[in-house]
Structure formats: C-alpha cells, structure tokens
Amino acid sequence: MSAQSPRRGQWGSQIGFILAAAGSAVGLGNIWRFPYMAGQNGGGAFVLVYLVCVLVIALPVMFLEISLGRATHRNPVGAIKAVAPRSLWRLLGYLALLTGLGILSYYSVIAGKVLTYCALYVRKLVLGEGIVYSGATVEVVIYFALFLILTVLVVSGGVQRGIERWTKILMPLLVVIMGAIIVRSLLLPGAMAGVKWFVTPDFSKITPRVILNAMSQGFFSLSLGMGAMLTYGSYLSRKDSIVTCGTSVVLFDTVIAILAGFMIFPAVFALGGDPAAGSTLIFQVLPKVFGGMEGGAVVGIVFFFLLCVAALTSTVSLLEVVTAYFVDERRWSRRRSVWTIGAAAFIVGLPSAFDLAGITPWTSITILGKHGFLEAMDFLWGNLSLAIGSLLLCVFAIAVWGLKNAASEIEIGSPGFVRFRAVWIFFIRWICPALIGVILVSKLVS
Predict the structure, then answer these.
(1) What is the pTM of this model?
(2) Which of 80, 168, 232, 446 lies at 20 to 30 Å from 19 by C-alpha?
(3) How many beta carbons lie within 10 A of that of residue 6, not counting itself?
C-alpha cells in the first residue's frame, strides 16, 4: 500500500519482532494480574476458559492489527489516513495515541512500586532490614520517574539498536528467572497442592462471571486496541510471516501467564497463603511467602526484578506508539520525541502517583464510578479505551479497508493462510466484534 520510508526503523529479523511484540504483551498483566484473576475465579476453570478466549478473540485481532501496520508502514494515525484520507476514522488513530500515553502514565507508577520492592529486598539482603513499603510521596514519585527514564533510554535507541536489542536480552532473561523461581516453588513441601488446583478445572466453577473475566483478561493482556501491535507491525518486512509472528506472540504471552501461575500458586499453597487474595497477592501475600522461605530475600530480589523486566518491555511499546506518530507525521527526531512524551507521561501520571501515596483528593476522587485516580485511569484507558479501539478497528476493517484486503496482506509471507482465510474473515466480521462488544458493555455496567 505504501513504501517504507528510509527514515523509519525496521526489525533486523523476524525473531526481533516476535520478542519485541511479545515483550509488549507480556507485562504486569501476565505476572501480576493473571495469577490473582485465576485465584479469584476458580484456578483451573479460569485457565481453561482463558485459553479458549485467547484463541477465539485475541489471535484473529492480532493478525488484523499487525497486517494494517505492515500494509501502511505507518503509526496508528498515519495508517488510518493511508487507507481513508481526510476521513473521521483518523480519530481512531488518535484514540490509540491517547490510550498509549494514558496507560504509560499510570502503568509506570505501578512499575515504580515494583522497582521499590526490588530495592527493599536488596536492602534486606545487604543490611538485614525488614520489608516495609512506606508509600511516601517522595519515594513513589522518585521510583515512578526512574522507571520512565529507563523506558525513555531504551526507546531513544531506535527500533533495532534500542527496542530490538534490549528485548533480545530481556525476554530470554525473563524466562530464565521465571524458571528458577518455579523450581524453587515446586521444591517446597506441599507445593503440588497448588499445582493441582491451578491445572485441574472444576467445571462447576465455570460461571458467566468467570467466562467474562477470562475473556477480558485474555484480550487485554495482549496489548490489542492501543496501536502497539500496529506500530510494531509497521516495522515488519514483507518477507516475514504475519501468521508466524502473531501466533508466536500470542503463544509466548500465554505461556508466560501460565508460568506465572506455576511460580506463585505452589508457593502460596505450601506456605498457607490465600490464592484468592486479589490484587494484593503480589505486594502483600508473596512477601510473606518469601519471608517463610529459606533464602527468601534472594528469591524476593529475583522475583521483583522479573516484574521490573516484564513491566519495562511493556512500557517500551507504549512509548513507541506515540513516538512513531511524532517521528512519522510531525518529522520530529526520535530523541526529541521520546523525551517530550516521557515528560508528558510524567506530568499526566503524577495524580496517579499521588493517589498511590495516599494524598487527597486523588484517593477520594470518583471518575466513571471508580474510586481513586489510579483506578479510574486503569478503567478508562486499560479497559474501556482498549475495548472501544479494538471494536472500532474491526469495524474499520469491515467497512473501510476491506477484509479481503486485510486477508491478502496476511497472505504475503504466509501463503498457507489461504486455507484459513474464510474462517478468519468470519471471525473478524462476526465473532470478535460481538465478544468485544460484550466485554465493553460488561465494563460499562459493572
């Protein structure tokens, strides 16, 4: 559809794209949110429904988003404009930019908290101090800023020398660290009770609420609907297979989520923790679990460093979505773009940081029925905006770009896709929009 500008970056290899895109998808949603969602929704029953939802919803939309990026070699705004010039559909591209910036702002605050815990465990190991998270305003803001700076430094290096180079290091490191913690958890007396609970589905627990939560988690954990996969796809060569790349990313993301369960639940069961502790599972329950382990301080350092790595690979993609727009459309240099957007994310994220630190009125504010600025930002950008963006992307492909054009783009580099072309078109036309719509409505009425 359009030739790739020599000014734009490009992945050095297909594996570079896969690791970078998998890094975008893999984050706190896999290692923090997935385990506590599984814990609250019946363990193995939730996992089974989650796997089905990933296959039915996430994979088809993944192919669509990557294909639009590669076909246009543009950012979310530029991609829409390339297909429908002077159309109001370009607002869909701007929604993706706002979503990326919005999620980056509060996600980095949470990632800063993870970085704080990592530092606390280092102090415990070196100085023998207890693990006490103060949540003081200065502490929260400093670690929030540090995490944003790390993200800016990676993205400022460009596509190959920055994002691809670092994800080739960070993603394998992520898997190695997870493997080490899994082995340590499985060696604990009574750990197999946690394994059995996590892998054995109790079909009586598969309720409409569990199905809805699994659909939501499977969809949102893959960074769909915010332009990240579109942007990363725009750096993909036409020699590479969208089917191979998209399937690999979904598979990698799902495996990491499952491994996170094997990291956490054997240890929780072995040491008497509550698997249904909710969002506090990582920050309150696990430190107690580590405290009951021999060498728990070392395990704690490794675990929270792992979370930092996972969070960083996600924030890199969030920053790159907005950076690509300013590089492509505004002709800014990459360095100017990343530092300007990083500064904007810091300013926008300060209310979330103040909320996390317990400062009023940010802790008492109510937006869209959610209490606290941080929770409201997560609901607005991490739930509503992603669902709206993905739903509109499907409608755009159906009504404007054309599903035959999208399918033809996917077939380039993936000739075997022709056997599944009709099935994919059916899912994007009917199944995915319907299920995404159900997710969206459920979020609005919950």
Answers:
(1) 0.93
(2) 80
(3) 6
Provide the b/e sequence for 60-81 (b: ≥16 CB within 10 Å): bbbbbbbbbbbbbbbbbbbbbb
Phi, psi at residue 206, to the nearest 5°?
-85, 90
Question: Distance (Å, rounded) from C-alpha 419 to C-alpha 411?
Answer: 10
Phi, psi of 401 (to 5 degrees): -70, -40
Q: Which residues contact 445 (CB under 8 A, 6 or more apart)?
A: none
Report whether 282 contacts 34 (CB < 8 A).
Answer: no
Spell out the residues 6+ positions from residue 61 whose beta carbon is closer than 8 angstroms to its own: 219, 224, 225, 390, 393, 394, 428, 432, 436
Task: Look at residue 342 in the predicted model and tell me its pLDDT.
Answer: 98
DSSP β-bridge partners for residue 370: 367
pLDDT at 102: 96
Q: Block means of pLDDT (10 residues each) for the chain, length 446 residues? A: 59 90 88 91 94 93 97 96 95 97 96 93 84 88 97 91 86 87 90 96 91 83 90 94 96 94 92 84 80 81 88 92 95 96 98 93 85 90 91 97 98 96 98 93 84
- CATH (residue range 14-445): 1.10.4160
Q: What angle do CA 170, 174, 180 make, to 5 degrees?
A: 140
SS3 367: strand
Give residues with Cβ within 8 angstroms of 162, minimum separation 6: 154, 155, 156
Say what the pLDDT of residue 128 is: 78
Query: What is the DSSP code (8-state) at residue 224?
Result: T
- Rounded to whole angstroms, the Cα distance separating 238 from 247 reads 17
Domain boundaries, the chain: 14-445
pLDDT digits (tens, 9 = 90+) for 95-107: 999 999 999 999 9
The continuous run of DSSP H or E covering 366 comes out as: strand 366-367
Is 68 within 8 Å of 406 (Cβ atoms)?
yes
